[in-house]
What we know:
Distance between the termini: 20 Å
Organism: Chlamydomonas reinhardtii (Chlamydomonas smithii)
Protein name: DUF1995 domain-containing protein
Order of helices and strands: EHEHHEHHEHEHEHHEEEEHHH
Pfam family, one: DUF1995
Amino acid sequence: MTYKPLSYGEMVNDAVDAVSNAINDGLKLLEVEFPALPTNIDAYKGASDLFIDSNTQLALAAAKRLSARGRKVHIVLPDGGEHARTCRIFKNSIQLAEGVTVGHLLEGNAPNPLAGLFGGSGPASKEAGEKADTYIFINATCVELLNVRTYIEKMPAGSDKVMILWNLELDSLRGDLGLPAFPPKDLQYQFLCRFRPAFYLRPRDYSKSVPVPPFIINYSGALFREYPGPWQVMLKQDGGEYACIAEDRARYNLGEFKEELTVAMGLATEAEGSTMQFLRRGVKTSTWYEDDYEQEKFHEWRL
């Protein structure tokens, strides 16, 4: 299999198809992840308005497509300030999006009397949120994941409402859990682990030095999943498309993904168990949240 989306619109269509397939199979907690910006721009470190606005546009596009399939979609922003800003910048798009509303994680709380000092507040959104059956959470930081959890857990028990974590870059946010001033790792063990990736495309770039010209070989790939298909390790070809070189029912960890790419490139030339192989792979080939399988209450995020 190869994958080469020609536009962000095509990726959004693929993501919505995957989400719809997951919903039809009875899944209600879903994750969508793909680069909201070209891969040469570091969205997470910059936390820039460029990333926020691009991701908001993509979420609105997805919401419109889901609404056309009969869903009542509520896009959920981190707070009232982000909500007011989004309603101001994307006013026309929101008004033209039938069946789509915009709110924020704190919309059920009492109004902030100081909101007027910081650019005002957006329109009331609590009632619209209560009427929705599909929620798309965007642009939350690691600390704000606690509010995402609170928002979702306030939903009525046995509800058929669908929750979608949209381009939150959860792999990066998970890495901050447990650090001082950040939420505890239990947020992964008890909450984030419940979300099934419906559409996932994460590109990565690597290089390896070799003793002959060109001395440095650069290669790229992506971890890819489109529900209900398997997890796939994709190697980027010269034409820009991604070609599947390995697949599995369960998610590949970081080290497994890199090893599959290295082998496919013919760069795994060290003897098995040798010192050179150890030095190439490194001491640690996976993250703590990939390793802590036994501590997870659910394993949906791996499937």
